[in-house]
């Protein structure tokens, strides 16, 4: 509706006859092209040509480009045989463009459908106009909604170009030609500066339409598929210094542009150079380059600056490397001290990194943690119990959030307390089933045994396309955290293959089965089970159903605190099954809300806080789960499994994706309603019979390595006990 209105308005004003050339350089961004090129194709302003410069992308990317561009004759693609970089690609685009106006889009970004209309309808006599750029890490339907307002303000170029980007400028092609505006080709980074400076030399302000939006994607996988600015920061610095020096020479007579460059330099120095030059070695390597650039700096252009930085810049200008080095080190030391003093945890981290990891290494100390200190469980528990029962001379430390009643000689420490940092800094061994915080620098001599916490069904880390969870830095952080692992336990070949790709793990995989599953193969399962039931006060006369679902990435209160809505009709279950069964409710350890059992207390037992789910496997006769890895472990018992997958499509297609085909590879039925669950329990013998063949195949693939002695083998390999 709005599109039609704007179009007829254009027609009246004769704007529609102006053609816009949208230039899109592409280098291996196939997963984003449907969104980026698609967003241009769908623009409500139709008089456009799309100039694609394929900067020597891979075949798979070329294929997507062809698919995307085949049916639209407004698109022209130029292929470069060797990679020339974004600056050269855009220059080629300018050269080939035939439009009255030029617009640049990066191939991983996208624009709402009215973006170009809003720009061109407001450009009037100006030769250049821009709008608002927003950062975003994934596209949602809302991002593409039409804007209803159309305001224009004059914005000063100093502020507009602070981010050093030529994106989202609509600019007359004649203006580019007359002023000989080109991107810098000799640098890989900051090539936009060469384009921006001639504009700044001519203009102090340009019209700005805040309702015309450009979405700039923050890539969530800087390891496998980094954007340009996620690449090597030392190379970025060298490029910055080169281009700064070159442009200072070119624009010294243009005071506005000259002042802009010095401001950029100061900001870049504060934000990046100080961080990059964090060692004597780097100072030695880059000082001369820094000196050559800083010689060009005019202090009059940056009058009000921090006195510490002022002194450093003066030392560089005087070519006094020794003084600069002294000043920079004191500066960095002072800033880290300032950070340290800003809070208790920050202080402890500072003490850990600067002092504790320099204390002597305790060769015979092992620190254990399971599920982020939430309970005493999983493979770390089995490894610990096996070791202390062998009477070894190791000292054992367990990390918990709250004090626990646990067997054996272990010392308990509170997560994130001083002792936590002290023991993690000095213990030779770390044993954990999940990730440890990034700030725990791994010291020389440390051995980290990562037990992991499940055979994967849901796609993990680098096998996931997009991240729908609370933290957009997930992949980068995971990568850094997992570089510290020395050993990783895998329970089956299927997991080993996945861990190599999903975690990019290249060190030693321990392939003996899961220590946590040893108990499931124990000869006296029945006695152990009876004892557990008695301890829990569960009737010995009834059969037990265990419901253990996983968490949903998109349902959370805040990072790490997830919600779960119970979709089982407990009242009806009790009515229909209560004579024969009771049900144990076991929520995932991320779930923060309480599950209501009012009115069914003698049928439904909430054991979400219970230490170790392995005990619950042992005492149950049937498992109900969804996409949780619990079924891989439970299969060791060869007991019936039901899958209550009421949100299968959303979970599989939108949130995660799976490694196996749930429809025909899992050892039990996929059930969509609470009634179907009740029905399957009533007819459990038939269900078992029906799934026998699939179950046997599954058992072979997943449980084949498990012999009940994984703990012993892991301990022998890592601790030599
Ligand atoms: N778990 C539990 N109770 C639940 C769900 C899980 O005690 N209701 C425990 C089980 O030991 C399970 C582990 O937490 O194996 C991991 O849970 P998943 O539901 O599989 O989810 P997630 O923590 O995302 O781990 O490779 C495995 C994946 O990393 C999945």
UniProtKB/TrEMBL annotation:
<keyword id="KW-0472">Membrane</keyword>
<dbReference type="InterPro" id="IPR029044">
    <property type="entry name" value="Nucleotide-diphossugar_trans"/>
</dbReference>
<dbReference type="InterPro" id="IPR043148">
    <property type="entry name" value="TagF_C"/>
</dbReference>
<dbReference type="Pfam" id="PF00535">
    <property type="entry name" value="Glycos_transf_2"/>
</dbReference>
<dbReference type="InterPro" id="IPR043149">
    <property type="entry name" value="TagF_N"/>
</dbReference>
<feature type="domain" description="Glycosyltransferase 2-like">
    <location>
        <begin position="21"/>
        <end position="140"/>
    </location>
</feature>
<dbReference type="InterPro" id="IPR001173">
    <property type="entry name" value="Glyco_trans_2-like"/>
</dbReference>
<dbReference type="Pfam" id="PF04464">
    <property type="entry name" value="Glyphos_transf"/>
</dbReference>
<dbReference type="InterPro" id="IPR051612">
    <property type="entry name" value="Teichoic_Acid_Biosynth"/>
</dbReference>
<protein>
    <submittedName>
        <fullName>CDP-glycerol:glycerophosphate glycerophosphotransferase</fullName>
    </submittedName>
</protein>
<comment type="similarity">
    <text>Belongs to the CDP-glycerol glycerophosphotransferase family.</text>
</comment>
<dbReference type="InterPro" id="IPR007554">
    <property type="entry name" value="Glycerophosphate_synth"/>
</dbReference>
<keyword id="KW-1003">Cell membrane</keyword>
<keyword id="KW-0777">Teichoic acid biosynthesis</keyword>
<keyword id="KW-0808">Transferase</keyword>
């Amino acid at each position: 509706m709005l599109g039609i209105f704007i179009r007829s308005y254009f027609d009246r004003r004769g704007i529609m006859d102006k053609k816009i050339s949208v230039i899109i350089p592409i280098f291996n961004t196939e997963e984003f092209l449907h969104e980026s090129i698609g967003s241009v194709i769908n623009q409500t302003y139709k008089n456009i040509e799309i100039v694609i410069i394929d900067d020597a992308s891979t075949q798979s990317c070329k294929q997507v480009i062809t698919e995307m561009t085949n049916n639209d004759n407004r698109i022209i693609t130029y292929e470069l045989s060797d990679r020339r970089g974004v600056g050269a690609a855009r220059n080629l685009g300018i050269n080939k463009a035939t439009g009255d106006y030029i617009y640049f889009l990066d191939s991983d970004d996208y624009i709402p459908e009215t973006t170009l209309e809003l720009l061109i309808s407001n450009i009037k006599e100006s030769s250049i106009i821009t709008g608002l750029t927003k950062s975003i890490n994934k596209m949602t339907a809302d991002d593409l909604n039409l804007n209803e307002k159309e305001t224009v303000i004059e914005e000063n170029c100093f502020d507009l170009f602070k981010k050093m980007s030529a994106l989202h400028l609509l600019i007359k092609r004649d203006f580019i030609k007359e002023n000989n505006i080109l991107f810098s080709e000799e640098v890989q980074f900051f090539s936009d500066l060469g384009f921006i400076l001639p504009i700044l030399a001519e203009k102090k302000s340009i019209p700005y339409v805040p309702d015309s939006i450009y979405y700039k994607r923050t890539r969530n996988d800087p390891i496998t598929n980094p954007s340009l600015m996620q690449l090597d920061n030392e190379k970025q610095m060298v490029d910055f210094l080169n281009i700064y020096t070159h442009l200072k020479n070119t624009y010294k007579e243009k005071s506005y542009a000259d002042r802009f460059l010095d401001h950029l330099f100061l900001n870049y120095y504060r934000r990046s150079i100080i961080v990059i030059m964090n060692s004597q070695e780097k100072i030695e390597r880059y000082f001369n380059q820094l000196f050559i650039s800083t010689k060009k700096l005019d202090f009059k252009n940056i009058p009000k600056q921090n006195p510490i930085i002022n002194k450093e810049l003066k030392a560089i200008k005087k070519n006094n490397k020794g003084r600069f080095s002294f000043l920079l080190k004191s500066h960095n030391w002072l800033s880290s001290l300032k950070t340290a003093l800003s809070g208790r945890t920050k202080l402890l981290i500072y003490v850990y990194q600067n002092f504790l990891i320099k204390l002597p290494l305790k060769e015979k100390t092992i620190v254990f943690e399971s599920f982020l200190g939430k309970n005493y469980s999983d493979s770390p528990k089995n490894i610990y119990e096996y070791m202390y029962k062998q009477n070894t001379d190791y000292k054992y430390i367990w990390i918990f959030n709250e004090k626990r009643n646990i067997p054996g000689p272990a010392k308990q420490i509170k997560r994130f307390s001083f002792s936590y940092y002290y023991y993690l800094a000095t213990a030779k061994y770390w044993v954990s089933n999940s990730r440890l915080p990034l700030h725990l620098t791994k010291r020389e001599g440390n051995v980290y045994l990562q037990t992991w916490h499940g055979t994967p069904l849901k796609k993990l880390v680098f096998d996931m396309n997009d991240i729908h969870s609370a933290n957009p830095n997930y992949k980068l952080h995971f990568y850094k955290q997992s570089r510290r692992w020395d050993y990783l336990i895998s329970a089956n070949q299927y997991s080993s293959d996945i861990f190599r790709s999903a975690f990019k793990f290249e060190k030693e995989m321990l392939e003996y089965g899961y220590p946590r599953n040893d108990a499931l193969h124990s000869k006296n399962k029945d006695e152990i089970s009876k004892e557990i039931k008695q301890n829990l006060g569960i009737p010995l006369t009834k059969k037990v159903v265990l419901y253990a679902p996983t968490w949903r990435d998109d349902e959370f209160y805040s990072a790490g605190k997830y919600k779960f809505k119970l979709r089982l009709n407990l009242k009806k279950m009790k009515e229909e099954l209560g004579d024969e069964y009771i049900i144990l409710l076991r929520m995932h350890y991320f779930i923060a809300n309480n599950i209501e059992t009012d009115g069914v207390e003698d049928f439904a037992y909430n054991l979400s806080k219970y230490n170790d789910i392995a005990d619950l496997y042992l005492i149950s006769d049937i498992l109900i789960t969804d996409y949780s890895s619990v079924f891989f472990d439970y299969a060791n018992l060869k007991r019936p499994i039901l899958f209550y997958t009421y949100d299968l499509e959303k979970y599989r297609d939108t949130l995660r994706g799976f490694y196996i085909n749930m429809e025909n590879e899992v050892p039990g039925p996929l059930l969509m309603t609470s009634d179907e669950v009740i029905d399957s329990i009533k007819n459990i013998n038939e269900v078992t019979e029906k799934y026998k063949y699939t179950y046997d195949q599954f058992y072979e693939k997943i449980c084949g390595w498990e012999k009940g002695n994984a703990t012993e083998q892991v301990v022998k390999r890592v601790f030599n006990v």
